[in-house]
Specification:
It is a single chain. This protein has about 260 residues and is an alpha/beta fold. The chain has two domains: about 110 residues, CBS-domain (Roll); about 140 residues, Alpha-Beta Complex (Conserved hypothetical protein from pyrococcus furiosus pfu- 392566-001, ParB domain). The chain has a five-stranded mixed sheet with strand order 6-11-9-10-7, with helices on both faces. Helix 7 packs across helix 8. It is elongated and about 70 Å long. It starts with a helix and ends with a helix. The C terminus is likely disordered.
């Protein structure tokens, strides 16, 4: 099943009107940190596009309609995300407005969204393997669903993480690129199986919920990870130790191979 633009597009889009001025656009750049915006009419139909480059050397009172680009590349929400990515690559655009059949703006898709889709797409296989393993070992049926979990409720199954990788996960979370975590839910407990760096990053950033693949198991079985967390005394994310000044094993191997 192909991934569609609508699955990853941003629906709340900052826009400008043709009667807005360069001054308005500059204020919007400062407010949002974005460098380009769709221009829409009163019916939310896309009539142009403006970028920070278009604002250079222009009078603050210049109307957006006088400097906006009218030759537009747009995406439709039902498009395959790969096709939208190819359009962005060929045209050099980092974003595409997403419009409906009446040319009304319904979202925007960016290079970051495409990257995020590639990061996230690997997880279903990992989750399916874990699900199958639990079912074979314990002879039970499990249920997998996608949802949000509160970071404060997570019980870690890993006692240490690496500071260098944590920095990368913090950067990803800030940009909305973090892949879903994987948890096992037994009664009211959530055991964190994959995503310890992401969860600690979320805690540091004050992010209270994360997207997750949730494997629900029956209450009448005892999982190996339950014995593990009891042995290590792990009860919450606060029990995870951050190892400083020691590179993640993958980084260490990479540098060794380059030597």
């Amino acid at each position: 099943m192909s991934i569609k633009v609508k699955d990853y597009m941003t629906k709340n889009v900052y826009t400008l009107k043709p009667d807005n001025t360069v001054k308005d656009a500059i204020e919007l750049v400062r407010k949002t940190g974005h460098d380009s915006f769709p221009v829409v009419d009163d019916n939310m139909r896309v009539v142009g596009y403006i970028s920070a480059v278009d604002l250079l050397d222009k009078s603050p009172e210049t109307k957006i309609r006088d400097i906006m680009s009218r030759e537009l590349y747009v995406a439709r929400d039902f498009m395959d995300l790969r096709d939208a990515a190819r359009v962005m690559f060929r045209t050099g655009h980092s974003k595409l407005p997403v419009v409906d059949e009446d040319n009304r703006l319904v979202g925007i898709i960016s290079n970051a969204d495409v990257i995020r889709s590639q990061i996230e797409k690997v997880d279903p296989d990992k989750v399916e393997k874990l699900k199958n393993t639990i079912e074979k070992v314990h002879g039970v049926r499990t249920v997998v669903r996608r949802g949000k979990v509160e970071t404060a409720r997570l019980i870690p199954t890993q006692s240490r993480i690496y500071a260098d990788e944590l920095k990368g996960r913090i950067h990803e979370l800030k940009r909305g690129l973090a892949e879903p975590i994987v948890v096992i839910k037994k009664d009211s407990r959530y055991y964190l199986v994959d995503g310890h760096h992401r969860v600690v990053a979320a805690a540091k950033l004050g992010v209270k919920e994360l997207d997750a693949y949730i494997i629900e198991v029956p209450e009448d079985i005892e999982l190996g990870i339950e014995k593990l967390v009891r042995k290590k005394g792990l009860k919450s994310v606060r029990d995870i130790e951050i190892i400083e000044d020691v590179p993640h094993p993958l980084v260490e191997i990479t540098f060794r191979n380059m030597g």
